[in-house]
Amino acid sequence: MVRTANGALYTGISTDVPRRFAEHQAGAPKGARSLRGKGPLELVFSSPAGNRSQASRLEWHIKQWPRQRKEALVLGKLSLPDAL
């Protein structure tokens, strides 16, 4: 999960988190459109998810959560196995 300068949380998946985060920080053309111009960005949470299918499923679940639950995950007050 990436936090924008205004505090919004962005959730995505990647096979190479450091590379993908660098793309988001650099902006166009490979960074997510929704993050452009919203920096500085901060990587606040990442977790291995197995294969791409499992990662997509996990991403979908997290995107359905209310902000309070996402913040609990970021702060370590909630772990992924317990959360799902």
UniProtKB/TrEMBL annotation:
<protein>
    <submittedName>
        <fullName>GIY-YIG nuclease family protein</fullName>
    </submittedName>
</protein>
<comment type="similarity">
    <text>Belongs to the UPF0213 family.</text>
</comment>
<dbReference type="InterPro" id="IPR035901">
    <property type="entry name" value="GIY-YIG_endonuc_sf"/>
</dbReference>
<feature type="domain" description="GIY-YIG">
    <location>
        <begin position="1"/>
        <end position="72"/>
    </location>
</feature>
<feature type="region of interest" description="Disordered">
    <location>
        <begin position="22"/>
        <end position="55"/>
    </location>
</feature>
<dbReference type="InterPro" id="IPR000305">
    <property type="entry name" value="GIY-YIG_endonuc"/>
</dbReference>
<dbReference type="InterPro" id="IPR050190">
    <property type="entry name" value="UPF0213_domain"/>
</dbReference>
<dbReference type="Pfam" id="PF01541">
    <property type="entry name" value="GIY-YIG"/>
</dbReference>
